[in-house]
C-alpha cells in the first residue's frame, strides 16, 4: 500500500541510458535534457538553430551530461501529469565495467539505445548482461532510423537472437533511411509524424491506410504477449475482446517491470519528436521507485538482512555511487536515497568506513543549473558537499542507527575486451 508520504514517488523515474559507443547515447541524453528543460522555460528557444547553440554552450561549460545524476521534469504528452526523471549517467566504455555495475545499482530502469543500421553490437550485450544481473527493467530505442541501412527488423531480430529477449515492438517506423517520416504508436494506434519545429506537444493522426495491416499484425502479437502477464487481459483475449489502451499499457508495464516483456521503440534522437515519444514511454513502461524490490541491507555481525522500502519517513539508507571533483565547491558525493530523508547540515553514519560524517550542502543537478536543497528524500538522487570520507559504494545511514551495509558492488569485474 502506498502511504500519503510516498505518493510523490509514483511520479518518479530513475533511469539510465545505455548504448554501444556511437549508437546515440549522448545525443539522446542531450535532447532529453533539452526538451525537459524547455518545458520548464529553462532555456528560451525560438528557432531550430537555437537548439544547437544551447547544446554547444552546455558542452563548453561541460556540465550537462557530466553530472552523475541529472534531474529533469517531463509532462506526459496528452496529460497534465508532471514527472521527475532522474537520468543516471552510465559510463559508455567497457573499461569502466565496475562503474557501469555501480550505476546499475542506483537506477530503477534503463533505456537501451541501438543503432538501427548496426543492430545489437557486442558492447550492448555486455551492458545487457549487467542489467540482467541487477534485475533492471528495460525498454529499447532503435535509434537512427533515418540513417542509410537502418532497419527496425534487424534490431528486433538481434534482440531476440543475440539477447534472447522477448522483443515487443510498441512502435513501428513510417519509412526508413532518407524516407523516414515518423512512428506509429502500436498501443494507441496513432501516427506521429516528425516535424521540424521544436514543439513539445505531440500531434497525432490516424494510422495511414498503407500501414493498417502491418500495425494490426504487430498489435495482435503485442496483445498476446501482454495477455501472458495479465490474467484479466488473458480472459479478454480468450473471449476475443479488445482491451482498452489503459489495460494494454498496464499489462505491458507489468511485463516490463517483471522483465518478461521488452518494449522496443524506434526513431531518431536527432530529429524533433524523437525523444519526446521516448520520454512518454519511460513514463508509461518503466517503474517508479515503489515498483522495484526494496534494497536490502546486511545487519552487522549477523547473516540477517533488512529491507528499506522507498519511504521518506523510514530510516535513512543511502548509497554513495560517484565522487566528483568540482572546481567551485570541491568534493561532490553523488548519492541515491533509498529510504528516509537526508538533511543538509545533519550528521550521518558511514557504515562502510565506520565513521560519523557531517553533511554540508545538498544539490540537485539540472541540465543547466544546480539547485541547492535542504533535503533529499527517498527515491531522490543528488550531490552532497562536505562529506570527507565517503567513497563510491559506501552506505550512509542515520547517526545512531544500527549498523547495516546496503547491497553494493565491491568485487571488481574483469575488464571485458572487445
Ligand atoms: P554515443 O557514442 O552513443 O554517445 O553517440 P552520439 O550521441 O555521440 O552519436 C554518434 C553519432 O551519431 C553522432 O555523429 C550523432 O550526430 C549521430 N546520431 C545520433 N543520433 C542519430 C540519429 O538519430 N540519426 C542519425 N543519422 N545520426 C545520429
TrEMBL record:
Keywords: Cytoplasm, Elongation factor, GTP-binding, Nucleotide-binding, Protein biosynthesis. Catalyzes the GTP-dependent ribosomal translocation step during translation elongation. During this step, the ribosome changes from the pre-translocational (PRE) to the post-translocational (POST) state as the newly formed A-site-bound peptidyl-tRNA and P-site-bound deacylated tRNA move to the P and E sites, respectively. Catalyzes the coordinated movement of the two tRNA molecules, the mRNA and conformational changes in the ribosome. Its main location: cytoplasm. Belongs to the TRAFAC class translation factor GTPase superfamily. Classic translation factor GTPase family. EF-G/EF-2 subfamily. The keyword Membrane does not apply. It is found in: Cytoplasm. Residues 10-290 form the Tr-type G domain. GTP binds at residues 19-26, 89-93, 143-146. The chain holds residues 1 to 418 of 697 of the full protein. This is Elongation factor G. It comes from the Bacteria. GO terms for molecular function: translation elongation factor activity. The keyword Magnesium does not apply. It comes from Deinococcus radiotolerans.
Amino acid at each position: 500500500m502506498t502511504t500519503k508520504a510516498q505518493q510523490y514517488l509514483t511520479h518518479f523515474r530513475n533511469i539510465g541510458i545505455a548504448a554501444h559507443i556511437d549508437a546515440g547515447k549522448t545525443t539522446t541524453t542531450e535532447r532529453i535534457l533539452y526538451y525537459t528543460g524547455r518545458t520548464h522555460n529553462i532555456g528560451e528557444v525560438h528557432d531550430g538553430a537555437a537548439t544547437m547553440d544551447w547544446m554547444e554552450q552546455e558542452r563548453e561549460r561541460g556540465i550537462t551530461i557530466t553530472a552523475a545524476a541529472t534531474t529533469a521534469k517531463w509532462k506526459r504528452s496528452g496529460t497534465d501529469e508532471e514527472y521527475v526523471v532522474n537520468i543516471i549517467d552510465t559510463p559508455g566504455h567497457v573499461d569502466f565495467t565496475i562503474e557501469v555495475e555501480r550505476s546499475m545499482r542506483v537506477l530503477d530502469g534503463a533505456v537501451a539505445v541501438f543503432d538501427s543500421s548496426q543492430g545489437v553490437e557486442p558492447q550492448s550485450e555486455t551492458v545487457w548482461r549487467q542489467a540482467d544481473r541487477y534485475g533492471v527493467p528495460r525498454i529499447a530505442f532503435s535509434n537512427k532510423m533515418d540513417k542509410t541501412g537502418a532497419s527496425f527488423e534487424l534490431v528486433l531480430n538481434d534482440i531476440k537472437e543475440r539477447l534472447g529477449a522477448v522483443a515487443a515492438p510498441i512502435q513501428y517506423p513510417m519509412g526508413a533511411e532518407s524516407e523516414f517520416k515518423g512512428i506509429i504508436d502500436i498501443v494507441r494506434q496513432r501516427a506521429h509524424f516528425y516535424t521540424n519545429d521544436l514543439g513539445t506537444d505531440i500531434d497525432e493522426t490516424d494510422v495511414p491506410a498503407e500501414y493498417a495491416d502491418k500495425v494490426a499484425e504487430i498489435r495482435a502479437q503485442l496483445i498476446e504477449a501482454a495477455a501472458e502477464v495479465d490474467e484479466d487481459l488473458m480472459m479478454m483475449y480468450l473471449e476475443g475482446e479488445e482491451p482498452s489502451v489503459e489495460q494494454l499499457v498496464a499489462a505491458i508495464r507489468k511485463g516490463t517491470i517483471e522483465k518478461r516483456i521488452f518494449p522496443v521503440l524506434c526513431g531518431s534522437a536527432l530529429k524533433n519528436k524523437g525523444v519526446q515519444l521516448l520520454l512518454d514511454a519511460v513514463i508509461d513502461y518503466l517503474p517508479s521507485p515503489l515498483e522495484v524490490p526494496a534494497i536490502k541491507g546486511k545487519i552487522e555481525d549477523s547473516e540477517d538482512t533488512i529491507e528499506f522500502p522507498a519511504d521518506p519517513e523510514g530510516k535513512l539508507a543511502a548509497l554513495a555511487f560517484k565522487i566528483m571533483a568540482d572546481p567551485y565547491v570541491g568534493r561532490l558525493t553523488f548519492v541515491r536515497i533509498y529510504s528516509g530523508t537526508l538533511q543538509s547540515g545533519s550528521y550521518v553514519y558511514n557504515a562502510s568506513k565506520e565513521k560519523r560524517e557531517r553533511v554540508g550542502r545538498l544539490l540537485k543537478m539540472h541540465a543547466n543549473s544546480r539547485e541547492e536543497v535542504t533535503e533529499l528524500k527517498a527515491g531522490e538522487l543528488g550531490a552532497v558537499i562536505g562529506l570527507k570520507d565517503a567513497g563510491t559504494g559506501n552506505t550512509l545511514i542515520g547517526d545512531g542507527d544500527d549498523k547495516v551495509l546496503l547491497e553494493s558492488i565491491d568485487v571488481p569485474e574483469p575488464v571485458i575486451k572487445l
